Amino acid sequence: MKIVAPLRRRFNVAFAAVAAAAVLSSCAVQQAAPARSAEIRVITSGAFTEAYKQLVPLFEKETGHKVISAYGASMGNATDSIPSRLARGEPVDVIILAGPALDEFIKQGKAVPGSRVDLVRSAIGFAVKSGAPKPDISTVAKLKQTLLDAKSIAYSASASGTYFSTEMLQKMGIAEQVLPKSKKILSERVGTVVARGDAELGLQQVSELVPIKGVDYIGPLPDELQQNTFFSAGIVTGAKEPEAARALIKFFTSAAAAPVIAKTGLEPMTVK
Question: Residue 248 domain-assigned?
Answer without folding.
Answer: yes
